[in-house]
Prior knowledge:
- The protein has two domains: 5-84 and 231-427, Aminopeptidase, CATH 3.40.630.10; 86-214, Aminopeptidase i, Domain 2 (Roll), CATH 2.30.250.
- Helices cover 27% and strands 28% of the residues.
- It contains nine helices and 20 strands.
- It has helices at 5-15, 20-33, 185-198, 233-248, 277-289, 294-303, 349-362, 381-389, 414-427, and strands spanning 37-38, 52-57, 61-66, 75-81, 86-97, 100-108, 121-130, 136-148, 176-179, 204-214, 219-221, 227-230, 254-260, 305-309, 312-313, 336-338, 367-369, 393-397, 399-401, 408-411.
- It has a nine-stranded mixed beta sheet, with helices on both faces. Strands 8-7-10-5-6-9 form a six-stranded antiparallel beta sheet, sandwiched between helices.
- The relative contact order is 0.17.
- One of its GO terms (molecular function) is zinc ion binding.
Amino acid sequence: xxxxxxxxxxxxxxxxxxxxxxxxxxxxxxxxxAGYRHxxxxxxxxxxxxxxxxxxxxDSSIIALQLPESGLEALRMIGAHxxxxxxxxxxxxxxxxxxxxxxxxxxxxGALLAPWFDRDxxxxxxxxxxxxxxxxxxxxxxxxxxxxTVPSLAIHLDREANNGRALNAQTQMAPVFLQGGExxxxxxxIKRWLYEQHKLENIDILDFELCxxxxxxxxxxxxxxxxxxSARLDNLLSCFIGLEALLDCDGSQGAxxxxxxxxxxxxxxxxxxxxxxxxxVLRRVHAQLGDGSEDGWVRLIQASRLISCDNAHAxxxxxxxxxxxxxxxxxxxxxxxKVNANQRYAxxxxxxxxxxxxxxxxxxxxxxxxxxxxxxxxxxxxPITATELGVPTLDVGVPQWAMHSIRETxxxxxxxxxxxxxxxxxxxxxLA
Length: 432
């Protein structure tokens, strides 16, 4: 297969981003390398036309802005989310008994549980500590080797296993972690890992948010490398695509990438799409580079457009009947416009027409997804952001299989298609 630098960057980003906090840190680092200035929400801002800035909240949500050289008249926004379904440790995680320490977990989001069995699981997230001088500090932790597993029950002990059975997240999903052991062993190990990774000594662990994740690395698969397989494609693939587009655009227009946390659990948080993060940042920008008036604010938002990027359900060859016959997107068939009459997606004919014209301009194929009328429909940050901000919005996504599994699959060509379309969107002078 030919050398593909963009694909290599994607696979590296996926492997180095086991949690929303790591994904955000990696995006910030890439933006800073490209000349973006990381600014703090708690400080006063001094903005100028042409500035490139990046802001984070909760260390898990990010907004990057390319401010226009001329007047602040319209913004081209790309939206995504940093979180993915999975297993997260409970605060008092150790479960000791029957010769093993296990870890009590909560299911985060709508995870497919069966694929979590018999995987080599690492541990990652953020830990808040008190240093010996009294300072409180949050640090990232990534134990990127297998330290836990959720073993299956042998079929000899459950002859009905292949006939479908419910999984109990409380009693059947606790990973085995350490043979023997005591309750304080988890804190002891976290301290050891923090020393190995950050040289932190003489600390007290005050709290943590830790996730289990599959340590199998991302890969390009298929005879011709047609597919990408990885954990967290939903929705780190969109984060990566949006970042690539922002860095590839010509910078002539006002451009924004916003990637928020907690989409998989409803987005209702200070750093989620239903929270005030985006509005807070845009109002501060408008106050300095716009006219600062309420009338000017409404005109800016209504002249702007948001493309919300979250992966779409590709037609599954083994379950074709789960799709509407006329709306089954193909892997490597191009980005998918997501439509729902009940506003589970924010797409309307005006925003869809704009995207179709952008794809024509960029030479990118485009597809449409509508769920079967007798099935429920998921949602994205699109309708939430459109409701909170009032900006005309479109929901699109790269088609994928196995959404919310521990390992998902997408097409190797589709990320390039969507990057090209988004670059054309960010460079476009007229958005109407």
